[in-house]
Specification:
- The structure holds two protein chains of two kinds.
- Chain A is mainly alpha-helical.
- Chain A contains eleven helices and two strands.
- In chain A, strand 1 and strand 2 form a beta hairpin.
- The termini of chain A are far apart.
- Chain B is mostly beta strands.
- In chain B, the strands form three sheets. A 16-stranded antiparallel beta barrel of chain B has the order 3-6-7-8-9-10-11-12-13-16-17-18-19-20-21-22.
- Classes of the chains: A mainly alpha, B mainly beta.
- Chains A and B meet through helix 1, helix 2 and helix 4 of A and helix 5 and strand 21 of B.
């Protein structure tokens, strides 16, 4: 019996010693891996999503578990996976975000960041994180904001106003097509919206990484844009631009009704997707009648503000 | 795997004879430690996510990992189809665990004055090897193929299935065909425990002492077809599986007209800062043969008829108390037909005496349905994604023995496991964990001398997958 107790003691002691030895080398060489991960001094930061208040301090473990592999411990987009990803993970330290409801150049709202976490980003490795609780997502939004001092110095922009969508008509589709040509969208997106325009191969993002224009013709009913899937999302992308990419904001270049016409036309480029726009086009035999096309080629209305910006 | 000893006798006469406890104990130890477990760095490599994105502590899934699995190993983005992968990508993962362990059993049959002796052995050993291959064959067509070996290199197919995902663009319509794990969200294949006495869930394999029904083991992968549906965010999950009553063995070794079914449903909900909680239930009902044609007294495989029924029902829950602490709770009420309780059923592989062939339709005198209740609670304290401390406490209690003369507590099980798992690093390329675990198990009345049989294990191992 005594022998047995001695053995038990030896073994338990051995286990503990073995465990400690396995931990020590890693601790000595790298940042300590046991306990909260000291990626950087954490700024106190909150987010406000509806009734939820997110706290950065509560997202530290979730960020490390789910996000750091791509976005990096420092939020600079240099996680261990970053070299293998295309497009590259977002660099939170510069606080430039594609998906916003706010004007180009401004910070997104907390809700914008929350929606991105919730929705994921198609055509990238960013998954849909809707298994999180609302609180977890709100906490992560707050955590993301700790990486850039911009969030302490600036306020988020005012969300743009999206007017009610006018009816989808052959005239609006046709006018959208006219605008697509006139505003030279085709130079990047290609004449058929396949992302194969003459400039496509030369495009780079704000970090000089090659970037491809969106291919409207790919995908079917479940196709999504980077920042949403509805007509309102498409309108918003059009008017806010995708900061950090060559896709500019057109808010200062066209009127809302023109933007909606463009949205209607872009939907017809999604040839494999069931949509009101494609139904209207199909009812006309699959083509815009020449007389409608001709009538649609009127001048593009200029916004009254006349402010510069955007560009192509 | 059989828990408790199986006799080669019938009816109540088997109680006192007991069984080759040592052999079964060793078999149990070996089988327990080779439970194939699914954690696929191949998925991490494909999508560029760390193991921790899908696993609470690999191989145990978190909610995101469960959703990924329920979507057919897809993130539901445009990178799911294999055509988007680098041609050099190979969806294969190997997992194995070299370890040192101490295994101790209080009583084995031995040539001593009492006929029994205690046995404790220590030494270095290996687990079995899992070759885990899985992923998508095309968008919304996924597969899993797991050749698995024991520690000697003897292979079998643990999982072989193809799944048609999101039929008609609906997450509620997914159909899987082949050999598969039953759809309990508490998964024995993904348990974090590894040791001989603690690596398996007893309730997933429980068979009353002297019982001949090997077919009701919901921890064994089964051959059949599964419908599974879930909500977009995976909060609601439902599934139904119909499978052959062969305990996952190929070539229909028992009978061709015996089927079982497994139903599971669960609902998750947000509990604010506590996290997402999930509650659900399951039911396994089935029938299996008790009558076989014989040749020279030897039962003929595949000739089984005379189906008798069995059932397993229970509740399961996964509860989070904040980001660091979670509890898995699993309960079961089990019942076997009296024929199984009298050790009719599996006479093909020797669970029961081949003479126990139900050719007369006359039940042994006094035989009745064995029933039992059980539960376990498994706790994980996740200090951070790299370091997890765990425990599991499990109890199985017979509520009715197959024969009234059997001790009421015969076969009752108590099982306790405690340990920790430390990942020195975390990447999306492979998994490596230092694993230290202690487990203790006791089954009432199953030692060779009729007393309690208890075993304990200490395991120190390096669990790796790449």
């Amino acid at each position: 019996m005594k022998n047995s107790k001695e053995w038990t003691f030896r073994i338990v002691f051995g286990c503990l010693a073995f465990g400690a030895l396995s931990i020590l080398p890693a601790s000595a060489q790298d940042a300590p891996d046991i306990g909260p991960h000291p990626a950087q001094p954490l700024r106190p930061m909150e987010s406000h999503i509806g009734n939820f208040t997110g706290h950065a301090r509560d997202a530290k473990m979730d960020y490390r578990r789910y996000c750091a592999g791509c976005h990096g411990d420092l939020g600079d987009g240099n996680g261990e996976n970053a070299p293998w990803l295309d497009p590259k993970p977002r660099d939170f330290t510069i606080a430039t975000f594609k998906c916003r409801s706010t004007p180009t150049g401004t910070l997104p709202t907390d809700q914008d960041l929350y929606d991105t976490v919730n929705r994921g980003i198609d055509n990238s490795n960013m998954p849909i994180w809707n298994t999180f609780t609302e609180q977890q997502r709100a906490n992560l939004v707050a955590y993301i904001k700790t990486f850039s001092p911009r969030w302490e110095k600036e306020k988020a922009g005012e969300p743009i106003k999206i007017p009610a969508e006018p009816p989808v008509t052959m005239e609006s589709i046709s006018h959208g097509k006219f605008l697509f040509t006139k505003m030279e969208c085709w130079k990047c997106h290609g004449p058929d919206g396949k992302g194969d325009g003459p400039s496509a191969a030369t495009l780079t993002d704000s970090k000089d990484q090659p970037i491809r224009p969106y291919n409207f013709a790919s995908g079917g009913d479940d196709s999504r844009f980077k920042c949403g899937s509805t007509n309102r999302d498409l309108y918003r992308i059009f008017m806010t631009g995708l900061d950090g990419t060559p896709m500019p904001s057109f808010a200062d270049n066209i009127q809302p009704n023109d933007a909606w016409d463009l949205v209607h036309f872009l939907r017809t480029l999604q040839v494999n997707r069931r949509s009101r726009e494609n139904e209207v086009l199909k009812a006309a035999g699959g083509k815009i009648p020449p007389y409608v096309e001709k009538a649609a080629q009127g001048p593009v209305a200029q916004p009254s503000s006349g402010a510069a910006g955007g560009g192509k | 795997m059989h828990m408790g000893a199986q006799s080669s006798c019938s009816g109540n006469s088997c109680v006192g004879k007991s069984f080759p406890a040592a052999v079964l104990g060793i078999v149990f130890l070996l089988l327990a430690i080779i439970q194939p477990a699914n954690a696929l760095p191949a998925f991490a490599r494909k999508y560029g996510l760390r193991c921790s994105a899908c696993h609470e502590s690999w191989p145990m899934l978190n909610y995101f990992g469960q959703k990924f699995k329920d979507n057919g190993y897809q993130l539901m983005n445009d990178k799911d189809a294999p055509i988007w992968q680098n041609p050099a990508y190979w969806p294969i993962t190997l997992r194995m665990t070299p370890f040192w362990s101490r295994e101790s059993t209080n009583k084995i049959s031995a040539d001593t004055a009492t006929g029994v002796a205690g046995l404790a052995t220590t030494g270095f050993n290996l687990s079995g090897l899992d070759i885990l291959t899985g992923g998508t064959l095309e968008k919304n067509i996924s597969f899993l193929l797991v050749p698995s070996s024991d520690e000697t290199g003897s292979f079998h197919f643990e999982s072989v299935n193809v799944r048609f995902d999101n039929l008609f663009h609906s997450p509620w319509l997914n159909v899987k065909v082949g050999k598969m794990e039953l759809d309990s969200f508490i998964s024995e294949k993904r348990t974090v425990t590894l040791s001989a006495s603690g690596g398996a869930y007893q309730l997933f394999h429980f068979i009353p002492v002297g019982d001949g029904n090997i077919f009701g083991q919901l921890g064994d992968n089964q051959l059949g077809v599964e419908w599974m549906g879930h909500s977009f965010n995976d909060r609601t999950r439902l599934s139904a599986t119909v499978f052959s009553s062969t305990d996952g063995n190929v070539d229909l070794p028992y009978g061709q007209n015996s089927y079982s079914a497994f139903f599971a449903g669960s609902q998750a909900f947000s509990a604010g800062k506590l996290g997402v909680q999930r509650v659900g239930g399951y039911a396994m009902v089935g029938e299996a043969p008790t009558t076989f044609l014989t040749s020279g007294g030897v039962p003929i495989p595949g000739s089984g008829t005379g189906n008798k029924s069995f059932s397993r029902v229970g509740f399961e829950g996964l509860f989070y108390l904040g980001p660091h602490l979670d509890f898995q709770v699993f309960t079961q009420h089990g019942s076997d037909n009296a024929w199984f309780g009298a050790c009719y059923g599996d006479i093909i592989t020797g669970t029961c005496d081949p003479a126990n062939n139900n050719t007369t339709g006359t039940l042994p005198a006094g035989a009745r349905n064995p029933t039992w209740n059980g539960a376990f609670v498994e706790t994980h304290f996740v200090w951070n994604p790299q370091f997890t401390i765990f425990q599991r406490s499990e109890w199985v209690r017979m509520s009715q023995q197959a024969f009234a003369v059997m001790p009421s507590n015969l076969g009752n099980i108590d099982n306790y496991v405690v340990g920790y798992r430390y990942n020195p690093f975390m990447t999306s390329r492979d998994g490596f964990a230092f694993h230290n675990e202690y487990s203790w198990i006791r089954q009432r009345g199953t030692a060779p001398d009729g007393n309690d049989l208890s075993s304990n294990s200490i395991l120190l191992g390096f669990d790796f997958a790449f």
